[in-house]
TrEMBL record:
This is histidine kinase. One of its GO terms (biological process) is cellular response to phosphate starvation. It is an enzyme of class 2 (transferase). Residues 190-394 form the Histidine kinase domain. InterPro entries: BphY/WalK/GraS-like (IPR050351), HATPase_C_sf (IPR036890), HATPase_dom (IPR003594), His_kinase_dom (IPR005467), HisK_dim/P_dom (IPR003661), HisK_dim/P_sf (IPR036097), Sig_transdc_His_kin-like_C (IPR004358). GO terms for cellular component: plasma membrane. Keywords: Kinase, Phosphoprotein, Transferase, Two-component regulatory system. Photoreceptor which exists in two forms that are reversibly interconvertible by light: the R form that absorbs maximally in the red region of the spectrum and the FR form that absorbs maximally in the far-red region. One of its GO terms (molecular function) is phosphoprotein phosphatase activity.
Length: 396
C-alpha cells in the first residue's frame, strides 16, 4: 500500500501570491492531513482506492492525494481536465477511467453529504464534497470499496470528510491572512520611501539649529529633536526589515518584563481613563524578539484601553502548555460586532476614530513570524478578548 501525490493543472487557476517568501503558505501541512485521513479510512473501510482533490492556493493548481493497492505506479500524461489514470488494484486491474475523468461531477453536489456514484459493477464509489467555492471547481473526497458501506461506515466517512473540510477552511484562511500581510509589507515599503527623506531633512535642520544656538534649553531641544528623529528612523527600519522571520532577534525573555515595560509607556492613557492592568505574578519565559513582542503588547493593550469604560480593568493572563504559551488580553468594553471579527486584522480597517487600521495587522504579522496565531472573540460577560499563542522555543 502506497501514498501518491501529484500536482494537477486547474481549469480555473487561482491567483498566485506575491514573490515575498513570507507570503507563501506551505502546502505540505494540509497535504499531510489528507494523507493521514486517507490512511485512516483505508485501514477502517474495505477500500479499493481512495483520493482527495483540493486547490493548492500557493501555486494555483489542483492537488491530488491518493492511496491504492498496487506497488506499480502507471505513468501517464497529466491533462488539465482530468485526473491521472494510475490506479491499479492487484490482479483485478479495475478501471477507474470514468471516475478519474470527473465526468460524474455536478455543481449541485451538496457539501458534506455522501453521494453514491453508479460507476462500475466491480466496485462501489462514494463521493463527499468538502468545500464550495465561487468558481466551478471540484474539491472532494472519493472512495471506491469492494462492498457496500453500511450507515455506520458512511458516517465514519462523513466524519473524516468533515475534519478534512475544517482543515481546508483553516488552510484557506491562513493563506488569505498571508496575502493581506504581503499587501501590508508592500504598504510599509511605500511608507519608507515617503518618510525616509523627510526624516533625514528634519534631522539635518535640527543639527544645523543645534550648532547655531548657544548652549541652553533651545540647544537641548534641538538635540532632542535629532534624537527623536533617529529613534523614529530606527523603528521604521525595524518595522520594515526585522518583521521578516529570518531577521528577528530571538532571545529568551520574561513576558512579565515585556508587559511591564509596555504599561510604563501607556501610563498617561491609563491615568486619563482611570484604568488598571492586571497580569500574572508568575513569570513565563519565551523565545521571542523583544522589540517586536513589545509592539504586539503595545498595540493590543492600546486597543483595550481605547474601548474600556472609565475606571475599568484590563486583564492579561497566560497559560503554559507543553510546547507553547497562550496569552489572553481582555477588556470590558462593548465587544466586537460579529461582522467586524473577520475584518479587524485586515490592513487599514479600523474601529477607532482616526485610527490607521495597521496596529492589529502588524501585531498579526509579528505573531505569525514567531510561529504563533492571533485571534479575537467576544466574551460572554461582555467585552472583547484577543488571544495569541507563542512556542516556547523558536522552530528553525
Amino acid at each position: 500500500m502506497r501514498v501518491a501525490t501529484q500536482k494537477l493543472t486547474s481549469q480555473f487557476p487561482l491567483p498566485l501570491l506575491g514573490n515575498n517568501s513570507e507570503s507563501k503558505l506551505p502546502e505540505s501541512d494540509f497535504n499531510q492531513i489528507c494523507q493521514l485521513i486517507i490512511q485512516q479510512l483505508t485501514a477502517l473501510l474495505p477500500t479499493v482506492a481512495i483520493w482527495t482533490v483540493y486547490h493548492d492556493l500557493t501555486k494555483g493548481k489542483r492537488h491530488l492525494v491518493a492511496e491504492y493497492f498496487s506497488e506499480n505506479l502507471c505513468s501517464v500524461q497529466v491533462t488539465p481536465a482530468c485526473l491521472p489514470s494510475y490506479f491499479v488494484s492487484g490482479q483485478s486491474n479495475l478501471d477507474f477511467t470514468s471516475l478519474q475523468a470527473e465526468t460524474w461531477w455536478r455543481e449541485d453536489f451538496p457539501v458534506l453529504k455522501i453521494t453514491e456514484l453508479a460507476a462500475s459493477d466491480l466496485y462501489h464509489s462514494y463521493v463527499c464534497r468538502i468545500s464550495k467555492q465561487s468558481v466551478t471547481t471540484a474539491e472532494y473526497l472519493l472512495i471506491c470499496t469492494s462492498k457496500l458501506l453500511s450507515d455506520e461506515q458512511q458516517n465514519l466517512l462523513l466524519n473524516n470528510a468533515q475534519i478534512l473540510s475544517n482543515y481546508l477552511a483553516m488552510y484557506r484562511e491562513r493563506s488569505h491572512q498571508q496575502q493581506e500581510i504581503a499587501a501590508l509589507s508592500q504598504a510599509l515599503g511605500q511608507a519608507e520611501h515617503q518618510l525616509r527623506n523627510p526624516l533625514a531633512l528634519i534631522n539635518l535642520y535640527a543639527e544645523n539649529l543645534r550648532l547655531a544656538l548657544p548652549q541652553g534649553d533651545l540647544q537641548e531641544q534641538a538635540s532632542l529633536i535629532r534624537q527623536t528623529v533617529d529613534e523614529l528612523s530606527a523603528k521604521l527600519t525595524d518595522l520594515l526589515y526585522r518583521g521578516q522571520q529570518a531577521n528577528l532577534n530571538f532571545r529568551k525573555h520574561n513576558l512579565q518584563t515585556i508587559i511591564g515595560e509596555c504599561i510604563k509607556t501607556l501610563q498617561h492613557l491609563l491615568k486619563e481613563k482611570e484604568l488598571k492592568i492586571n497580569y500574572p505574578e508568575k513569570p513565563v519565559y519565551v523565545t521571542v524578539d523583544n522589540w517586536q513582542m513589545k509592539q504586539v503588547f503595545d498595540n493590543l493593550l492600546s486597543n483595550a484601553i481605547h474601548f474600556s469604560p472609565r475606571g475599568g480593568t484590563i486583564t492579561c493572563n497566560w497559560y503554559a502548555y507543553s510546547n507553547e504559551v497562550l496569552i489572553e488580553i481582555c477588556d470590558r468594553g462593548s465587544g466586537i460586532v460579529p461582522e467586524e471579527l473577520k475584518q479587524i486584522f485586515k490592513p487599514y480597517y479600523s474601529r477607532r476614530l482616526g485610527g490607521t487600521g495597521l496596529g492589529l495587522a502588524i501585531a498579526q504579522k509579528i505573531i505569525l513570524a514567531h510561529q504563533g496565531n492571533l485571534w479575537a472573540e467576544n466574551l460572554p460577560e461582555g467585552g472583547a478578548q484577543f488571544s495569541f499563542t507563542l512556542p516556547f522555543k523558536h522552530r528553525k
